[in-house]
Amino acid sequence: MQPYELTLAAAADAIEARRLSPVELADSVLERIEQVEPRLRAYVTVDAEGARRAARRAENDIAAGRHRGPLHGIPMGLKDLIDVAGATTSASSRVRSGHRAQTDSTVAARLSAAGAVLLGKTHTHEFAYGLTTPQTHNAWDPGRVAGGSSGGSAVAVAAGAATFALGTDTGGSIRVPAALNGVVGLKPTYGLVPRHGVTSLSWSLDHVGPITRTTEDAALVLAALAGHDPRDPASLTAPPAHYRPGPDTDLTGLRIGVPRTYYFDHVDPEVAAAVRSAIDRLQALGARLVDVEIPMTRYIQATQWGLMVPEATAYHESSLRTVPELYQADVRILLEAGELMSAGDYLRAQRSRTLMRQEWARLLREVDLIAAPTVPMTAVPAGQETVTWADGTVEGVSDAYVRLSAPANITGLPSLSVPVGHDTAGLPIGMQLVGPPLGESLLLRVGHAGEQTRSAGHLAARAAPC
Fold it and tell me: For the segment 41-59, what is each residue's pLDDT rounded down to a tens digit?
C-alpha cells in the first residue's frame, strides 16, 4: 500500500509512531495528484511547494516532541469557497478572478493550528450553485458527473489526491458528491462548524463539513472544526463532544427509522436494494427497525428553493447587476430568478421550515435516527440533464440529486453519507443517516459499525479506477 492510500487515522497513527514521515506522505499524495489530475480535474490550484514546506515543518515539530494531534502532517484539500490568507478564493467563477483572501477562514485557521498540510483548492460548481461540478470528473468513471457542489473535494479524496478535504453543503453538496464517489461525507448540525470566511450560497442553509474515506476519519476532522465563533451569527455554543467511534459495533436498543414515504420513492432499484441491505446489517448488529412517515414531503422542494434562491440572489445582488456576463448561464439564470421571488414567498418558506423542524423533532423522539438513500441514482453521464423513472416521471438531474438531501439542510439536522456498495456498472452507492441536533457522535458510531460489517472493500474508494 502506498502512503496516499492510507486513511487519515492510519496515516496519523503511522506518523505518531514514526513509521511514516509527513514529508513521505505529502510526496506520495502530490505524486498521486500529478498522476490523476489530468483526467479528474479535482483541483483549481495545487501548491506543491507550500505543501512540502508545511510537511517539513510538521516533521520537524513532531521530531522535537511538539505533536499536535491526529491531523498533524496530514494532506488536505479545501473547497474553493474557503478563504486561506494570501490564496485565491475563486468559487470556480470568473466573477472572482484575481480575488485573494486577506485572512484565514475559521475552519482553515483551525486545521492549520491542528497541523494539517494544505495541498490546494478544490473545484466547486460555480459559487456552489449546482449539483454536478461540471469541470470535475467522477473518480470511478471520468465520463460521469462528480456530483456537487463539493465535487472536487470528493473526487480528490476518492482518488487518493487528498487524505481528507472540506466541502460545503447547502442542499446536499457534501453528501451528494461523497455518495457518487464512494467516500464519506458529513454535514454537521447547522451552526456546529463556523462559516466565517466561507463564501455563502444561502446563509440559512449553508454548512461546512469533512469529506473522508471512513467515518473515523470524519470524526477526527470534525473534532478540529467544531466550536463556537462569534463571527458567525449562527455559530452554536455546544458542549464538548467525543466524536471518534470506538470498536464496539453493538447497536442493541437503537431505533432506526426506515422511511415508508419519500426516501424510497423514485429511487433506482439497485440503490434501494443496496441501502436496504445496509440497513439489514445494522439490524443484525442489534438495532430495531421502525417504519416511519416522513413529514411534510410535498413541501420539501418548494421550501428548499424558496429559502435558497432569494438568499443567493441577495448575496450576489451587486455583481449580478454589474458583471452578469461573467457568470455561467445556469447560475446566472437561477440568480436572476431570485429577483422575481416576493418577500411573501420567502416568508412562507421560512414558516414551512419552522413547521418542518417541529415535525422532524417529533419524529426523532420516536426513533434515534433515520436511514435512507443519499441520492436516488448513481452518477449519471456528464451532460445528462434529466432522468426518467419507471412510471414515466421525468426529473431534472440536479432536482433528483438534491431531493433526498434537502430535508437535513432545511431542518439543520446532522446527516452522514456512507458508501454501502456499487451498482452493476461499478458505481458507488451511498446511504445517509440523519439524526437529532448535535447527534454527530451517534451517526458516526452507527456509520462506523456499518463499515465493520462489510469486507475491507468498504475502503474501495482508495482504488477508484480513475
Answer: 999 999 999 999 999 999 9
Specify the pTM: 0.96
Looking at this protein, which amino acid is placed at residue 424?
A: T
Give the integer Cα–Cα distance in Å for 425 and 419.
15
> CA-to-CA distance for 331 and 115, rounded, in angstroms?
36
Superfamily of structural domain 3-296+350-463: Amidase signature (AS) domain (3.90.1300.10)
3-state SS, one letter per residue, for 89-156 = CCCCCHHHCCCECCCCCHHHHHHHHCCCEEEEEECCCHHHCCCCCCCCECCCCCCEECCCCCHHHHHH
Are residues 441 and 272 in contact, defined by beta-carbon separation less than 8 angstroms?
A: no
Residue numbers annotated as active site = 79, 149, 173
pLDDT digits (tens, 9 = 90+) for 144-200: 999 999 999 999 999 999 999 999 999 999 999 999 999 999 999 999 999 999 999
CB 397 within 8 A of CB 325: no
With 50 as the cut, is the pLDDT of residue 374 above it?
A: yes
